[in-house]
Every structure is written in structure tokens, then in C-alpha cells.
Protein 1
Amino acid sequence: MSPPVYRFAPSPNGYLHLGHAFSALLNFDLARQTGGRFLLRIEDIDAARCKPEFEAAIFEDLAWLGISWETPVRRQSEHLADYRRATEKLSEQGLLYPSFESRAEIAKLVTQREASASWPRDPDGAALYPGTAKLLSPEERARLLQSGAPYAIRLDIAAACARAGDLGWAEYGEGPHGEIGPITARPEAWGEVVLARKETPTSYHLSVVIDDALQGVTEVVRGQDLFWSTSVHRLLQQTARVARAGLPASPPRSR
């Protein structure tokens, strides 16, 4: 039986805070207690905010805490082709579509809809995307793409959920309301999530799923603020697997 694999995956867009340090120490200690492996991953897809000096500080702070990790360290910015390949596979399956509205335009659409009825929001409290780009004709969509207009690549949540079927995960920690044990995934609560943008071939949700799969991560230890994000990750694990995007059969356990 292979040893469990844990990971700590900070973004170098600032200095580590106490929450980061606790997460790193918890993962490292669990890896040692279980005879497992501990990986450090640098999630630096945000080129505008991630800085080399912050990455260097991460290494320095972790070493000061007595934490060691396997090398080489995986940097997301060095593996954009992996994420692009996954989006291409998902797109070929008809599970993705481009949306061209700006954030301000989306906020205006939501405000218009809230004038007559309440509008659904995701578990973090953000209004769900209205889905208007799905109504564009193929000709109009092609015209906008050819024009060079900025766009986001969104997951067709209804199509993905229908393809994936019922999903869940085993929670070995505790959710924000005491959830533990078998958890039913609710990816539809997040709406049409963004998986990539014109200028960036991935998003947090997509890259973390691809990275965990390629690195063989078996245990995901995260804060309660990311508890329901696991629903999206389970959906992406399943849809990417169906689309033959190179993901293994067994998702990591959550705690």
C-alpha cells in the first residue's frame, strides 16, 4: 500500500500568516505520523500579484518552522500546458463555454434580476452568474472570439452534473456546521464557475484538481472556508476523468 501524500500549496502573493503556518505544520505533522510524504506546491498563476520575493520568504519561513519538503517544488506557472490540455478536453465534451461580460456588466445583470426576485448566491455569498452567454448563437460567439474581446471560460454546471451523476466525499475532519463522514457534494450551488480566462489558461478550482491528480495527493487538509469548494473539485475530478483529461480513479480524502 502506497504511503499517504499531503501537500501545502500557498500562493506567493504576500507573506505567510499564522493560518498558513498552522496548515503547513498540520500537513507536515500528519505526514510524519502516518509515514507519508509531504509536498510543497507554489500556486503562482496570478502573475500580477505573485512575486519571487514572497516565494523566497515562504521557503525561509517554512524552514524556520522546521518543515522540510520533497523537491523539486511544483510551480503552477511552469505547468500551464497541463491546465490548457484539461480545458481542451473538457471543451471537446461540450462542458465549457466562453462568457464575455465584464464584472460590472454581470453585477448589473444580477441587480436587474434582483429587482423582481431574490437571486441565488454561492456558499461564499457571491451572486451566481446569470448564464446569459450560453444564449449566444454560434455565429455571435465566434465573432466575439475573433474580435479579441476578453472572456472567461465557464463550466456548464448542468451538463457537467448530468455527466458526473451523484457525487460525494469522505470528510475525516469537520465541516463548518459539524459535518463529518460521508458528505453529499453540491456543485450546483456554485453555478457556472470560471475555469480559465483568455489571458490565463486555468483558475484555482481547475489547477488544484489537476495538480493533486498529477502529484498523487491522497489527503487534502484545508480550512472550513474551503469545505464546500470540495463539491466543485469532486465535480471536476469526475468530469475531467470522463473527458479523459488524465485524472486517476480515486480522489483524495478531505479533512
Protein 2
Amino acid sequence: MRTPSQTVGPFFYFGLCERPTADLVSAGIRISGRVLDGAGEPVPDAMVEIWQADERGEYRGDWGWARCGTDDEGRFSFTTVKPGPLDGQAPHVELLVFARGLLKHLLTRIYFPDEADANESDPVLSSVDADDRPMLIATPDEDGYRFDVRLQGDDQTVFFAVV
């Protein structure tokens, strides 16, 4: 028998039907990765959302939000633009994870490796323990950027309190 927190998973279908695409633009940068559990195994039925500013660093009501379900290997992918800096913060993408067993979604940020100076002065990134900051910076790959989300364990992704 499933516990109440485990029943969240089957309802993701409805949320994914509302927004059938994870592509904010037809051509741009690709942000992809995997959602992994504490044992390093893929989470095949999670949902990942991104929220971001546009390339000028502005949040627009009609743009900047997308969601993607994970596949059998826990993979997700978005096509977007690199956001501009916003209010003294380095360019970043907010990433939320919804998955079975989670009563509340998890919130993290994706920062970009080619923004070293901006990352250094970002107030949110600076608030994270120095040893954990690299976990919030995407890795360049052949298609764009890679950012894996580890829900638990030694290499757990840094998550922020949702208020």
C-alpha cells in the first residue's frame, strides 16, 4: 500500500499535459541532466521545472517557465536562453524537482561556469558553503550544459528552503 507522500507521482501526468514542451525557444542553449536517488539510481517518474529571467535579466509574465518529466534513465532536458544577471545576482536558472516520496518540491539553482566573476559576487551562491558551491555550477557538454540532481547521499545537490 502506498503512503500519502508516494501518491504524488501518478498525478504528474496532469501537470505535464498542461505544458507539453520543455523548450522555451526553438534554438538556444540546452540544459540537461538526470535526477538520481541516494544510491545513484535514476528517478524515472520525477518532474523538473525551470524558472528563469530572459537574456536581459528580466522576468516576464509570458515567458521563462517550463517543465519536463524524467524518462526511464531519470533524464530531463530544456532548450532555453542563458539568462542575464538580475539585481546583483549572477545569471542562473531556478530548478524545482517534484518526485514520489517528497511532500514538498525541492528548489536549487543552476549557475553557469563561464560567469566566474558574477558567480563570485552572487549573494545566494556566496551563502552556500564554499565546498558545496561547485555542485550548483553546470558542466559544459557538447549540447550545452549538464546539471545532475542528486536527491540524497554524499554528493547531494544543494537545495534551498522554500518559503
